Amino acid sequence: MQTEFKLLANVIQSYLPDEYPYAVVGGDRSIKQTDFDERVDIIPVADPNIFSMAQRIQLAQTQLQMATSAPQLHNVKEAYIRMYEALGVSDIDKIMKLEKPEPMSPSMENRKLIEEDKIEAYEGQNHDAHIQAHLLFGLSPIVQIMPQIGVELNKHILQHVTIKAKEAVAQQIEQAEQQMGETAEGGDLENMAQAQIATLEAQFMGEVQQLQAQMSGEGQPDPVIALKQQELQQRALNDQEKLKYDQQRLGFDQQKLQQKDSIDNARIDSQEDIAQLRANINLKKLDAQGKGPGFQYKNSK
């Protein structure tokens, strides 16, 4: 662009008459050929922020048009605020009626986090209740799939810790002033207050970490492992009972075998006795008939 301006200046310097009249709104003007001599160099300059600002204004205007066309789906007030910010307006609060944000319950704050909205901690709140509720919400599955919520929760909890420490130090200073009957002033007191706030913040952060570990079960036995151990113990008891039953059954079977052997032996003995008795009876019968061995023995003599 600078080169083009120089070429154009050379052309005007070479072919422009000594004075060239031209008309503008509000009167006639004229330009002279000497205005383009080498005494003045044409250096075009541009502010790079001008185009960026125009872009921001155009983007904010488009957002405002979309918000006003469907107010039930948009935050129209936020669209106006962004429009004023793009225009470079600094005192927006004096132009618009901005509502002062009000403290909310922990459940409402958790809901706004899910909706990807900002939350703030305020003085006078029950900081311990808020911290506990947010820690419980941090253990929910929805935070696991939306990690940005966890980041915002930690930032919000830190806000509560800071405000809680400041309120505690302010209360201590007020009590000390009431006892001394005078108002404490000076930079030393402010430095002492800041040091005390830092001490309390460290103390409260330790309490938050302990509470978080207690809620998450950190350092405690895994319930799945405990259940598995209980299952193994029960299985071992069942195995012991089964082994005891098997031993008793084996002893009973051995006793039955012994009884069976005794009965079989008695039966064999009884059969042998019967056979012997039969044999004796047969011998007696033969002797009575003269056919036995004794009869033959007598005849041989």
Describe the structure.
This protein is mainly alpha-helical and 301 residues long. The chain has 3 domains: 2-45, no CATH class; 103-220, no CATH class; 224-300. Helix content is 72%, strand content 4%. The protein is built from 11 helices and 2 strands. The protein has helices at 2-15, 48-69, 76-87, 92-95, 106-114, 127-138, 141-145, 147-180, 187-216, 223-288, 293-300; strands spanning 19-24, 27-32. Strands 1-2 form a two-stranded antiparallel sheet. β1 (19-24) and β2 form a beta hairpin. α2 (48-69) runs antiparallel to α3, α6 (127-138) packs antiparallel against α8 (147-180) and α8 crosses α9. The longest helix is centred in the C-terminal third of the chain and has 66 residues, at 223-288. It is elongated, with a radius of gyration of 55 Å. It starts with a helix and ends with a helix. The model is unreliable at 295-301 (pLDDT under 50).
Tell me the number of structural domains.
3
Q: Whole-number average pLDDT?
A: 79
Q: How many strand elements?
A: 2
Helix-strand string = HEEHHHHHHHHHH
Structural class: mainly alpha
Strand content: under 5%
Helix content: over 70%
* Shape label: elongated
Radius of gyration: 55 Å
Number of helices: 11
Poorly predicted ranges: 295-301
Give a quick account of the main beta sheet: strands, pairing sense, barrel closure: 2 strands, antiparallel
